[in-house]
Design a protein that fits this description.
Length: 204
């Protein structure tokens, strides 16, 4: 019985995902989701309280990936001023971002361009605020490990760089790029960003 319930839930999510991608959150009909998934509308509500809950469940995978991105940024091993020069580290960062935007392209498109009317319609601002907080925390950890390093970076600059980060993701998922093109871009983006941060921090 439990397996049947889970199968029904997954079918609802699969149909809802297609509808959200095609119509966006606001224009997606719960009645259509019910009809296409072979359920009554009342039965849908035994699995989900409302359309917004379905929308968030559909996007649970990309949320987990974003959480991983945020959590790894300030790990102890990442607080290293010379790690960005390490070939293996740079390669791992490129691979991570390429996989992020290729595996979750449709999810990011939903979040960034089709979430109007949902509780996630301000996702971009929420991402920027969270990313900025992590950036500020990063500089404090750097200062603690490297007391002589300049960390006098304005909060607004960090905010703007965080805004740039989500804009980069938006550009990557809204264009039809091959994996090789995304890899090339990420290599250029990381090289550009690393040089800039090292200049600001007065690193040789």
């Amino acid at each position: 019985m439990q397996i049947k319930k889970e199968n029904t839930r997954q079918k609802i999510l699969a149909i809802a995902r297609d509808e959200f991608i095609m119509n966006g959150f606001r224009n997606t009909s719960m009645r259509i989701i019910a009809y296409k998934s072979g359920n009554t509308l009342s039965n849908i509500y035994t699995y989900f309280h409302n359309k917004d809950e379905i929308f968030r469940a559909v996007l649970s995978g990309v949320f987990a990936a974003i959480d991983q991105l945020m959590e790894e940024h300030n790990k102890a091993e990442s607080i290293d001023l010379y790690i960005m020069n390490a070939h293996d580290y740079v390669k791992s960062q490129i691979d991570f971002f390429v996989n992020l935007v290729t595996n979750y392209k449709e999810d990011f498109n939903l979040l960034l361009f089709k979430a109007s009317g949902s509780s996630l319609e301000n996702f971009r601002d929420q991402f920027i605020d969270r990313h900025s907080a992590i950036g500020n925390e990063y500089f404090l950890k750097v200062k603690n490990k490297y007391p002589t390093v300049n960390i006098e970076v304005s909060s607004f600059f960090i905010h703007t760089m965080s805004s740039w980060s989500i804009s980069v993701i938006a550009e990557l998922v809204s264009h039809d790029l091959s994996r090789e093109e995304i890899e090339q871009f990420m290599s250029e983006y990381l090289a550009f960003g690393t040089a800039g941060w090292r200049k600001i921090m007065n690193l040789q």
